[in-house]
Amino acid sequence: MSTNQFLPLVEKIKTEGKCLEGGILKVDSFINHQIDPIMLQLMCEEFARRFSNVHVDKIMTIEASGIAPAVVLGYLLKKPVVFAKKKKPSTMANMLTTEVYSFTKQKSYTVCCSKEFIKEGEDILFIDDFLANGNAAKGMIELVEKAGAKIVGMGFLVEKAFQNGGQMLEKLGHRVESLAVIESLDNCTITFKE
Ligand code: 5GP
């Protein structure tokens, strides 16, 4: 696991991040509601640098908050971006589906993606806003495997190391790059991993 902290993001979280009950970090002022495009560009340039030695055919994410960083990274790498949908569109043919348990909403939902947009043999870079227990990431690995494609890397803006998703993904053999790694949110204090 990379504990290589991306300092501009760490500073932004220190000034604007808020802790909520239950180990949730609220970053609504620049990631999850209002979006700071300058910070987004900086973060995606850092992803591009960290994954520069990896062959990527396509970037994948899950709606909604992963879409902005995935698109900016896709723009930088000049690669297409596909987002898995949380609601099954009635018009979608050849659908791949998987179940994902949501930590923030405390319920399971079905994630789907058309086979048209993940093809056998493709190298997929997965991007998302947060890594907590890794359920969303696990669901995406399943979707990509069902399509016969391969995950070549997983990038997260923020990883909450106390929830062990990173360890789980690395045990499965995945390369994980998290730009800011949080050690603890105990007592509503944001502590970054050393
Ligand atoms: P996981 O599936 O890894 O348990 O959780 C990842 C997903 O849950 C992310 O896509 C994100 O939407 C949401 N999430 C988990 N923890 C947090 C958090 O502390 N803050 C925010 N804003 N979203 C979170």
Automatic annotation (TrEMBL):
Subunit structure: Homodimer.
EC number(s) reported in the record: 2.4.2.22
Intracellular or extracellular location(s): Cytoplasm
Family as reported in the entry's similarity comment: Belongs to the purine/pyrimidine phosphoribosyltransferase family. Xpt subfamily.
One Pfam entry name: Pribosyltran
Protein's name in the database: Xanthine phosphoribosyltransferase
Binding-site list for xanthine: L25, N32, K160
